[in-house]
Amino acid sequence: MSDPPAAPPAAPSAGPATGTYRLQLRGTSGPGRCGLNEAAALAPYLASLGVSHVYLSPVLQAAPGSAHGYDVVDHERLSAELGGGDAFRAMVSRFRAHGLRVLLDVVPNHMAIPDPPVLNAPLAAVIEEGADSPYARWFDVDWEAGGGRLVLPGQGEPNYRRFFDISGLICLRQEDAEVFARTHGLLLRMVAEGLVDGLRIDHPDGLTDPRGYLERLSAAASAPGEPRWILVEKITTGEERLPAGWRCAGTTGYDALGMVGGVFVDPDGERPLTEAYTEFTGGPESFAEVEHEARRYAAGHGLRPEVDRLHRVLCRALGERDEARRADLRTALVELLAAMPVYRAYVVPGEDPPVQAVEVLERAERAARARVPEPLRDDLRRIVALALGGGGGSGAAEFAERFQQTSAPLAAKGVEDTAFYRWNRMAALNEVGGDPARFAVSPEDFHAYCARQLRDWPATMTTLSTHDTKRQEDVRARLAVLAELPGPWAEAVGRWRGWDPKGSPLEPDLEYLLWQTLAGAWPLTEERLAEFLTKAMREAKTRTNWIEPDTGYEEAVLAYARRVLADADLTADLAGFVDMLDGYARANVLGQKLVQLTMPGVPDVYQGCELAGLSLVDPDNRRPVDYGLRRSRLTRLDSGREPRDLHDEKLLVTSRALRLRRDRPEWFGTGAYEPAAAEGRAARHVLASRRGERPGALTVATRLPAGLERAGGWHGTYLDAGPGLWRDVLTGEVHRGSRLALADVLGTLPVALLVPDQAGDG
Question: What is d(CA 599, CA 412) in angstroms, rounded to the nearest whole number?
Fold first, then answer.
């Protein structure tokens, strides 16, 4: 069905987004199915959980058998496998009846090359007619490299820009007004008619001009004086900020993920864990060189077609035809790309480059200069000038655009999908948007980040887990304890390494990752562990890879893993170590969740993560979710029963915080944020903040729980709450201010969410 209904369901009560719940739709048959009808059936539960928006993965017609929806083949139809237009209409009606709105994932950057290609009509026309097709303007194709034809997968080196290095996804030219109109028509009609309330934009860094795209989208999707809630899947790194001029509400939350996780890591563990890692693996102490080599690997292998094309554009822009000089330019170009400290700069040819873009390129140039021969340093300067949109002849503007569209996938594939699997000092830090070199985040830096987000992007998204994270939030919370117990960890991993007298066939870094994975995600089935290890060693691309797998090595690794799981003594030792971690991990699991749910921004809960979970990278984190179990647990908690386990405790924290946000939006939307002061000998072990004008709501979370235990607990430590009675919406306990003893506040749970007693039950 190509069109939405003419008369939309009645809209729910107006108000800001207060919380979202991500659903990974899946149109395939079987127990893993989550189509539109299945999503609709969750409306009562999601409303009871406390969210305002259901956050859906893409719903347009995707390639046959798609398990995720990002491989769109038809922008003018809703997915038949998910249920089609009628099912979408019924789902929205069901959501509306429960006060829920829809946030929809949009994929503007690429389309699928399906089998057969005729399923993608615009693509099929280009395959048939080449550059003369009226659809040729849709796709980013290097016609010169293909001799005037589109080179499909299996027919030679791809001559089209791909989504990262996936040859089955061909990139679109959204800078073309016709392409934008044709690929967004149905989505914009759904927005205009009230079926969709917000848009999440996938991978804007792949677009020629993200700012221009967002301006066009916002203008088309928003009513006068009412900007549409638009979020971008933009990954910022280090000190990078989302460009201030973008017409969106913020990001999908990877920046928040890193900050929240980091504040629950003990900085004192960095040196001993680094020593344990280097002693075990013989690897480098620093991530920097590993990252550089991985970026160069990606440039010379998976992303070579894109780098080749960029190099040709560079030579044309500089008028360089001499083969030796062209080779020099390629050397300088690759080093500059490898030195980019962020995904991309945001330069629009014909405009002065933003200050942030100049700083990024100059920083990359300084790093690259140290790696190229001195005669090539002038070439670096010329390339940087071109990348900033200045000078050059034919192809100069194209180079500035393509440089950015090449540096982004190089960062993604070189760092997150290669280097993160080669250097595993602490796997919890090797996360999307993260920096393994940043070991921990201080409370001061965390509070400063929250204040900045409230000022600049109050409606941005926050998250702890997504469909793309390497490890679910609770795996990272458990592994964070290792920073507090580096000695016991080093002893344990030393024992496990010596378990097999025949030795291990694994590369040292992979073996170190194996033991961390077992500790972080225990208990693991053989199937899940094998799936993870296969992905990890192929992503590292040191002994095997996806294109040319070394089956002998892979079989030896998986056989070793099977023997590990089959050894009763070893697994008993492992389970005992995990039990020790879990005594402290409980505080991290609940603490990071409560902080994420109450900090500035709109919190997202990834499907199933309202209970404790230990999933690894996809597809492990896309397994079916047992909603019957979650409904029954929530019903039990709502009846006044006490939590029975960590699952119940996390569900309690999630539901009560989301409900409070929904009921008191003035506290949590654009309401004030300020740190809440603690005093006493254990003050460093509490992370506390206030939302809204005083008295507002107080979030109190335990951090570094093992250290807290060593310090003797909360005795003598107090929180400055302010006068009056404070009720914990998690436990119902009432505390009298203004100086609250943390031994009392955190006596039942390691977290508390305090409100003035007259505020109601949240």
Answer: 28
Q: Tell me how far apart the alpha carbons of residues 512 and 428 are, in angstroms, rounded to a whole number.
A: 13
Helix (H) or strand (E) holding 102: strand 101-106
Helices vs strands, H then E, count in the chain: 26, 22
| pTM score over 0.85 | yes
Predicted confidence band at 420 (pLDDT cuts at 50, 70, 90)?
A: very high
pLDDT tens profile 161-220 = 999 999 999 999 999 999 999 999 999 999 999 999 999 999 999 999 999 999 999 999
CB 396 within 8 Å of CB 281 = no
Helix axes 568-598, 486-497, angle to 10 degrees: 140
**Inter-helix orientation angle 323-338/396-411, to 10°:** 50
pLDDT digits (tens, 9 = 90+) for 639-688: 999 999 999 999 999 999 999 999 999 999 999 999 999 999 999 999 99
Q: What is the pLDDT of residue 759?
A: 46
Distance of CA 758 to CAs 182, 491, 754, Å? 53, 52, 11
The CA distance from 95 to 346, in Å, is: 38
Please report the pLDDT score of residue 28 as a whole number.
86
Structural tokens at position 36: 């539109």
Res 11: pLDDT: 46
User: What is the total residue count of the chain?
Assistant: 762
- Is the pLDDT reported for residue 716 higher than 80? yes
Contact 701, 708 (CB under 8 A): no
Among the listed residues 296, 377, 376, the one whose alpha carbon sits nearest the alpha carbon of residue 338:
296
Per-residue pLDDT, 758:
77
The H or E element containing residue 60 is: strand 60-62
Q: Answer yes or no: are the C-beta atoms of 700 and 458 closer than 8 Å.
A: no
pLDDT recorded at residue 576? 98
Whole-number pLDDT of residue 440: 98
The CA distance from 26 to 539, in Å, is 25
Phi, psi (5° rounding) for residue 298?
-60, -40
What is the per-residue DSSP string for 460-506? -EE-S--TT-SB-HHHHHHHHGGGT-HHHHHHHHHHHHTS-TT---S
**Amino acid occupying residue 508:** P
Q: How far is CA 704 from CA 257, 646, 720, 750, 754, in A?
A: 18, 18, 20, 11, 21
Q: What Rg, from alpha-carbon coordinates, does the chain have? A: 26
Interval 431-474: pLDDT, tens: 998 999 999 999 999 999 999 999 999 999 999 999 999 999 99
Long-range contacts of 129-138 (CB under 8 A, 24+ apart): 137/173, 137/176, 137/178, 137/179, 138/172, 138/173, 138/176, 138/179, 138/182
**Spatial CA neighbour of 760 closest among 640, 690, 656:** 656
SS3 356: helix
State both tokens at 221: 């999707």
Q: Give the ranges where 481-626 is alpha helix by DSSP (H).
A: 486-497, 508-521, 526-540, 551-566, 568-598
**Alpha-carbon gap, residue 594 to 598, rounded angstroms:** 6
Q: How are beta strands 739-741 and 718-720 bridged, if at all? A: antiparallel
Any residues with CB less than 8 A from the CB of 57 and at least 6 apart, and which? Answer: 22, 23, 24, 25, 68, 69, 70, 105, 467
* pLDDT number for residue 555: 98
Which ranges of 150-233 does DSSP label H, i.e. alpha helix?
177-192, 210-221
Mean pLDDT of 84-111: 98
Query: What CA–CA distance (Å, rounded) separates 213 from 348?
Result: 12
* Distance from C-alpha of 112 to C-alpha of 71, rounded to nearest angstrom: 5
Residue 517: alpha-carbon gap to chain centroid? 19
Looking at every residue in the chain, the average pLDDT score rounds to: 95
Helix, strand, coil share of the chain (percent; to 5): 50, 15, 40
What is Dmax (Cα atoms) for the chain?
80
